[in-house]
Amino acid sequence: MRDRLTNAMRASHVLALIFVAGALALAVIGAATGDTFYLRLGTEALIFAGLALSVDLLLGYSGALSLGQALYFGVGAYVSALTLLKVPSFWLAMLAAGGATLVASIIGGLIANRVRGVYFALITFGLAQVVSKVVYNTRELGASDGMIGIPVIDIGFGPFSVSAGNPVGFFLIVLAIIMGLYWLTAYLLDTPFGRVLTALKANEKRVPFLGYSVWRARMFSYVLAGLIAGLSGALYPMLRGFVSPELMFFATSGNAVISVILGGVGTLIGAIYGSVLLVVLKSIIGSWTEHHLIVIGLIFMICVMFLPKGLIGFIRPRLEERLSEKTPDATPLTSVSLQPGSAKP
Amino acid sequence: MNALDYLQFVLAPQVVNGLALGVAVVLVALGLTIIFGMLDVINMSHGEFYAIGAYAALALGAAGINFWFLLVLVPILMVPLGMAAERLLIRPVFDSKDRHVTTLLVTFGLALVVEDLLKVVFGPNTQRPPTPIPGATELAGIIVPNYRLFLIVVGAAIVSAVAYVVYRTRLGAMVRAAAFDRNMAASLGVPVALVYAGTFAFGVALAGLAGVLLAPIYSVFPTMGRDFILLAFTVVIVGGMGSIWGAVVAGLLLTQVQALASLVISPVWTDPIVFGTMVAFLVFRPQGLFGRLGHA
Amino acid sequence: MSNHVLDIRDLGIAFGGLKAVDQVSFKAERNRITTVIGPNGAGKSTLFNLISGALKPRSGQILIDGVDLTGASPARTKAAGLSRSFQITNLFFELTVAENLRMAAQVLEPVGRAFLPIGRSTRALAKTAEMLERFQLGHKRDELAGNLSHGDQRRLEIAVCLASEPKILLLDEPTQGMSHSDTADTAKLVRALSRDVSVLLIEHDIGLVMDLSDHVVVMHQGRKLAEGPPAVVRADPAVQAAYFGHH
């Protein structure tokens, strides 16, 4: 027996495999042509895809819009940079960044989960503003300049080792980590625990009367999202060799929200496609005008108003239909549209 | 420097500057809080409407139009702009399941577009229109630029007028009725669609007016809205979303905190203090000083 | 094991100056149908909100199977074996019928399975299938709850409450807005339920109440006016005056 939500997640997995195939093709072409620029751009897109993934976990599943998710991305990036400056170890940097964002997101979650809806959006926004301004003014963290000169590290896997300076090698490592985070999130969302998050978005008031703690579920998803953002952020200084307070600014959080909306809220893989799409759009538009925000802003508005399920939300139902042809007991989740107001009896 | 000199030449001017900034923030926050209180919409593009007002004043002023005339002309020009934004962007998603989030996202997109458009049209550089009232006045030993005095007085008058319209007139009652219960108001003959568009346009016109008034002091640049709106949001939250008097009290208090903190601690720490206040209010008193959650 | 699954003692709450529930005491017997009746504003729904943990009482005590759950959260009250439905249908409208049921039945599983794939929660899935069968919703299992007819939604709501195998079931006007035949079916259903679960009911249809209930509690203006077997309550002159007099 397989239900609709599982089937929808399977459709996302098919799209994830297509994504990985595309990324591997890029790596092969990049390796063959000796390209550095596009591989590094692709790596950066993947790193920000991790941030978008964390935004979609919150918005698409528990229904909470975070306008300050870059906070945890930045904490991860700064802690990773500080660690690498002392000890150039990939694993230690990831561990330290993970630990720091875990603590940060627990504190942030205790604060932010006291409120709901639009107040949650504003409080996450405010938290990120406070921390980014503090970092901006702290000389020990490089203040407004950030920290530069982070060494290029070798990433060891037992007997093997890949340099973060190797565009193909590092691209593949980042791809593996981001897709690993995607898979982990997708797995959790398709467990009974993850389904409680879906229930929160559908009807939060009903959840406690079924015996589940709303606070615990919200807290868990917030901390998990923070961790995903932090681990993604930890990769940033390895790629670029520097960190700056801009990583925590609203523009970074805003880009993640844009990626999620473009790609498709509540699909997980849409966040990853959306991030890549955003980078591609920026490069294409950027090649003929520096004012790419006008176009991206317009596309974003059109998406919110007319394509609220985004690119993947548009494609996935068709895929689900094909998948469910093999399993007649499951029908596509997104093909049945709710009439406006039908949620109210 | 002895204590009296400190008071006269450092502290008092700072308090007066803080007051001028406070009035300025209240003017911007006023439109924001009215739009939230009446329409239940978080207008993320409010700062950009403020910027449009300032740029309109700059351009029209350069074309030779008198500043005093601009004070009336620019808000009037903002009205159709606000009407169009409400009609094209807010109304289509007004009845979506999650109005707060959807309208917040749409207006966020609008903010991106407008900010970049201003850059395209006016260039990225900071510009400043000439001060309409030059000179300074000595008040009890404190030298205050005349234009700031004017701003404080005019600002106070505008806030009072708006509060009067909203709370004391038939028009205000009609708008509040439409905000309270749309169907009931419609059945009583209130033209709800027009009231909503008008309210949004009114908030936008107030932002534009603030832009005209503040351009001579705080300069004009494409991201001016983004920088200022954070403070305005804080004021709206601390004051209580939808409460006019809350915005006034919070605006004046927070700017004083900011002014004194920059003097006593350091200017760079004012932002964390202000946003920290906002977070603290959201945690411990999300309804703000005067507001009630979800009500005008 | 006491024969009283629910024991309410001097329960009270006030909103502003209004005593919505005032010094209400009664007991509900195991595997019986106890019905709370009273005119609009008598405090019936507030009483349900107090018992289910949605509101915290100002005074009094709530015991479920002898365990004091006064002021406990809805989740804790649920864990103690109390399920409730709502007067206004309260389901996950964007989720399927089966998922609504599985979500409720999941509490039957050990905590460890919360992080394993859904398919491993065999007991919850079996319970879901059982409920689909029993409530004749099997052919609609993959429909979104929001797309069901009103009658089906009301039935699903009862099924959801029952899927967690509660000791006591609070049903807030289960026949509200139902057609005549649907009401009769629901009455039959509730009667059948009481074989293995205690039911506390709020109901407006007096005919139904008299027909269905083992015990009736009459509320009026926040206070308990009378209680007893249906026939006794019906004959009570105070009840006649306060309640039946209006009909």
Description:
The complex is a heterotrimer of chains A (345), B (296) and C (247). Chain A is mainly alpha-helical and 345 residues long. Chain A has one domain: ABC transporter involved in vitamin B12 uptake, BtuC. Chain A is 71% helix and 2% strand. Chain A has helices at residues 4-33, 37-62, 70-86, 90-112, 117-136, 167-189, 192-203, 214-240, 250-263, 269-288, 292-306, 310-326; strands at residues 154-157, 160-163. A two-stranded antiparallel ribbon of chain A has the order 1-2. In chain A, a hairpin with a 2-residue loop joins strand 1 (154-157) and strand 2. Chain A is globular. The two termini of chain A are 30 Å apart. Chain B is mainly alpha-helical. Chain B has one domain: ABC transporter involved in vitamin B12 uptake, BtuC (Orthogonal Bundle). Chain B contains 11 helices and 2 strands; from the N terminus they run ααααββααααααα. In chain B, strands 1-2 form a two-stranded antiparallel ribbon. Chain C is of the alpha/beta class and 247 residues long. Helices cover 33% and strands 25% of the residues of chain C. Chain C contains 9 helices and 10 strands. A 6-stranded mixed sheet of chain C has the order 6-7-8-3-9-10, with helices on both faces. In chain C, strand 7 (168-172), helix 6 (180-193) and strand 8 form a beta-alpha-beta unit. In chain C, helix 3 packs parallel to helix 5. The longest helix of chain C is centred in the last third of the chain and has 14 residues, at 180-193. Chain C starts with a strand and ends in a 5-residue tail after the last helix.
What's the tally of helices of chain A? 12
Our estimate of the beta-strand percent of chain C is 25-35%
Strand content of chain A: under 5%
- Mind summarizing the main beta sheet of chain A? 2 strands, antiparallel
The major pleated sheet of chain C works out as: 6 strands, mixed
CATH superfamily of the largest domain in chain C: P-loop containing nucleotide triphosphate hydrolases
Tally of contiguous helical segments of chain C? 9
Broad shape of chain A: globular
The tally of strands of chain A reads: 2
| Biggest sheet, spatial arrangement of strands of chain C | 6-7-8-3-9-10
Order of helices and strands of chain C: EEEHEEHEHHHEHEHEEHH
The first-to-last residue Cα distance of chain C is 41 Å
**Unreliable parts of chain A:** 328-345
Q: Structural class, from helix and strand content of chain C? A: alpha/beta
Nearest-integer average pLDDT of chain C? 87
- Identify the CATH architecture of chain A: Orthogonal Bundle
